[in-house]
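Onboarding guide, step 5: your first structure request.
Type a short instruction followed by the sequence, for example:

Predict the 3D structure of this protein.
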Amino acid sequence: MTAENCLRILNERLSFDISLETDIVAIVTDGPNVMIKVGRLVCAEQQLCLAHGINLAVCDVLYKKHNYLQDSPTSDDMDDNNDDDHLEDLDCSESVPTQALLRKQIKSIVKRLNSRDDTEEEERSESLTDVELRPETSQPQLTLKEKLQLEIDKSMKSQILKYKYKMNRDDK
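The system replies with structure tokens like these:
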């Protein structure tokens, strides 16, 4: 469902004289691209999904901003239902970005996504050294930034393992 259809249906289905523009204070949507577009079209506060934000960041870094593809696929070449078709064209031997470069780029994209958060949340998550301990477990309570960093690290390790597996399989 497109963002426009989502908003049209919301406007049609809201009853009891409730208005999307004046009465709704926050909105949550599903799907990374719909999430971005609805956020631009609606004046209500938007709750972003961390998983979709990471998905957008990874796709933005790996597939859109850099020339890691030998030949950019055209819209005719791509199947609308499969976003992974262009992975076949990836020239892994010449221009695979390093993990550090990817981590840096993903962090900057996630910062852009979170720029709409209030300043209190930003101040709380800026310091990685301010880790509070939960009294009942004496385990560190991670900030949002630290949790995001852990998820990025897991995702990067997974991507590297898939890449190495594919390279080993192709060599045989």
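Each response can be followed by summary notes, for example: Residues 48-171 form one domain.
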